[in-house]
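Journal club side-thread
Mid-discussion, someone asked how the predicted structure for our own chain would compare to the paper's figures. Pasting it here so we can look after the session.
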Amino acid sequence: MKLLFLACLSPKTGNYTTAERIRSHIESAGHSCELRDVADFHSPSDVAHLVSQNPPFEGALAIHLFKAGRLLLDLRLPFGVIFGGTDINEDVKDEQKRVVMEQVLLKARFAVAFTEKLKEEAEFVLVSPDSKIYVQPQGIQTELAEQFCWTEFLRSSGVRTESLDELRVFLLVCGLRRVKDPLYLADVFSEWHSENLHNILIIIGPKVDPALTAEVEAVVKRATGVFLAQERSQQELHAAMKRCFAVVNSSVSEGMSAAILEAMDLRVPVLARNIPGNAAVVKHGVTGLLFSSPQEFVQQSQRLLSDPELRERVVRSGKLYVEEHHSVKRERETYQRLVDKLLKAQFLA
């Protein structure tokens, strides 16, 4: 089967990594899967024109019900959709977008939610048959870059202290866009750093939003103890995560944060903002720590610093959680089974 796969493909983002992994699952079953960025298309008619080319596409898949899914509305081919998170958590608040997303969901042969909570929310806010939405958590696999140099990483991020070995690095992994709220902790962390110079925050991720990137760069220049690192390859990022004290998530909205799960897989503590997408995978005090304000972030960080048993518990439980619930093998089997549904639908058409 020849499939078109649409997603937001800003380089080195979670969306990009997820789309590439799912594409590999599909192709490992013998199908052809062409992954394309939604930014390449202006309207559903553009996509309809593409799929009619010879040899024609036989089905389609999209990540994000609005950004990608709306581009499939003119297709006569069977297609499936994967919720991105911001579509169900944020875009449904816009009535025009919500109407479009309902049309996409009604026409789709199936939909995939990363969590049971996201499935329930989608069923509550959108018109859809219950049986159409499947729950499949993201499959997680981590790999460390062999040549990664921690000292060079810190120096290139602007860290100038001589006592690098004594630093406790909190790593905020996110693309620089509003929904990730990268500056949420900047002020309080800067104050905390002034009390203990060993605690530093490094923000790392692709510069997706130019205006926000300029804001972040300006804040980092004046905020002591807060740094901005250049984006790295997936393997280098995993190596940096492995060396840091804790991985941080301060997003306003998440579908399912791959960075959180990757940290768990790497046996690194997670401190995450208490939002539904994060709370679905981070059980407070068990697989990580949740916070609802910048001040609470500092309080939870201090708990982690002062309680080695707590740190060991969340690291051990986080690793077990990922192994049990985020199997790449099960994810592969699910998507191969769902693509078979598209194949049967195309055959019956």
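Post-session note: The chain has a mean pLDDT of 93.
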